[in-house]
Amino acid sequence: MNITIVGTGYVGLGTAIMLAYLGYRVTGLDTDLQKIERLRAGDLPIYEPGLDELLRQAQGNLTWTTSYEESIPKADIIFICVGTPALPSGQPNLTYLESAARSVARNLDGKTQIIVNKSTVPIGTADWMTRILEEHAVHYHTNRYDIVSNPEFLREGTALSDSLYPDRIVLGGRPWAVARLHELYAPLIEQSFTPPPHVPRPSGYTRPAVVNTTLTSAEMIKYAANAFLALKISYANEMAGLCECVGADIEEVTGGIGLDARIGTRFLAAGAGWGGSCFGKDTSALVSTGEEYGYDMPILRAAIDVNRRQRTLVIEKLQRHLRLLKGKRVAVLGMAFKPNTDDLRDAPAHDFIARLASLGASVVAYDPVAMPRARQEWGHLQYSEARSASAALAGADAVIIATEWDEFRLLDWDAAVLTMRTRVVIDARNLLRMPLSVAATVEQIGKDAGPAP
Ligand code: NAD
């Protein structure tokens, strides 16, 4: 089978390289020429642990192009993996998807081809895409072209393991098209491939569940899954606030409730809240879908509000200790929205830096991998870069830990804190194992901070 992947971002690249590793001939297509040129040179435009190694192993099966004319006619299966970012209204911006669907349609060549939607899209998008195909495909014939919804569940930072050993594969569409996807995914479904040595099969993992469903249910499954995870995080953060009021410790509380198998411990970490390209936009999209039907979604709206409040809370904690921020030097450790990625989309650190600068603080930021990307994407923010975490702390009045990188966990905090001007640490990821051996003010989320100074 020949595969074309349209959109070589975090999802498209992972999918392309994974399918090439499984032995398929894969063409990665993107309208961003710079990205394609880097890929042709064997250079990954994103940071994802282990992806460079898998790219080397799968290189022989991969081609990179900007040309729909060249890649679409020869493809048996076409994956759409373009971005669907949120508009200011909260609804997803479908212009990339529309443009990709039109370009695909114009280049379908009349043989049996399947268009698989991996982008996260509003419910009903598959029908809308079918109409685009009808309007723009030269050889359109419903029995020969079909759309399958195959939402993606990979997480940045663990994308390879998530792709090779998924919990489930969701396939929505007509039976003949879904059957073709079963064929394509057979090595994953049967786990018949040889695991790459650097991404071994997790112990206890057997096979993914396969969910065969309708287009609409598949689209809904993706949103409902992300919204539920976002909800769990906001729930933990709401409980964390109450823990601070009553003097309980949120980690002991979530550890305690997580032992109930119906709840589980995952996605209950209190902190600065969720960020990234998915949870914010997908929760807003679901709320606006509800609005289209006059259906209110108060639980989701509250989850979004709690998440927003967490970011404000971090700065309020800092203000409580430093009082005036004007002229103070504040270090921000971590810029990516989570560790093991360079993705800056909707990162809490962005809001921290913006707010601190607007309050007159001078901000020095450090991230192990995301600084080059921040130079391109955060030009509108006022901050300087540090060469290391300890360099960021030297002479600072306070530090905010914004991302839970292992590098920060492993820092010699006692030594680093001694180099600060005033020793205020706002651990917005509950990363530090307390207490420090040197005198310092450390605030975490959902822990009893004792009396205010
Ligand atoms: P991304 O922004 O990293 O990548 C999108 C790519 O599409 C870019 O390289 C862009 O240049 C390209 N593109 C845009 N318009 C194009 C066009 N007309 N033709 C060809 N290429 C085009 O986005 P992403 O993070 O990979 O997300 C893609 C989709 O997958 C989104 O809908 C997202 O919600 C969903 N998703 C993302 C993740 C994640 O962790 N990033 C996880 C699951 C699902």
Automatic annotation (TrEMBL):
Domain UDP-glucose/GDP-mannose dehydrogenase C-terminal: 331-434
EC number(s) per entry: 1.1.1.22
SUPFAM superfamilies assigned: 6-phosphogluconate dehydrogenase C-terminal domain-like (SSF48179), NAD(P)-binding Rossmann-fold domains (SSF51735), UDP-glucose/GDP-mannose dehydrogenase C-terminal domain (SSF52413)
Keyword presence, NAD: yes
Catalytic residues of the enzyme: C278 (nucleophile)
Biological process annotations from GO: polysaccharide biosynthetic process; UDP-glucuronate biosynthetic process
Residues where substrate binds: F153, L154, R155, E156, K222, F267, L268, A269, A270, G271, G275, K338
Pathway involvement of the protein, from the record: Nucleotide-sugar biosynthesis; UDP-alpha-D-glucuronate biosynthesis; UDP-alpha-D-glucuronate from UDP-alpha-D-glucose: step 1/1
Pfam family, one: UDPG_MGDP_dh_C
UniProt-recorded Gene Ontology molecular function terms: NAD binding; UDP-glucose 6-dehydrogenase activity
Binding positions (NAD(+)): D30, K35, T84, T120, E156, K281, R345
Catalytic activity: UDP-alpha-D-glucose + 2 NAD(+) + H2O = UDP-alpha-D-glucuronate + 2 NADH + 3 H(+)
InterPro entries in the cross-refs: 6-PGluconate_DH-like_C_sf (IPR008927), NAD(P)-bd_dom_sf (IPR036291), UDP-Glc/GDP-Man (IPR017476), UDP-Glc/GDP-Man_DH_C (IPR014027), UDP-Glc/GDP-Man_DH_C_sf (IPR036220), UDP-Glc/GDP-Man_DH_dimer (IPR014026), UDP-Glc/GDP-Man_DH_N (IPR001732), UDPglc_DH_bac (IPR028357)
UniProtKB keywords: NAD, Oxidoreductase
Record-stated family: Belongs to the UDP-glucose/GDP-mannose dehydrogenase family.
PANTHER family: UDP-GLUCOSE 6-DEHYDROGENASE TUAD
The name this protein goes by in its record: UDP-glucose 6-dehydrogenase
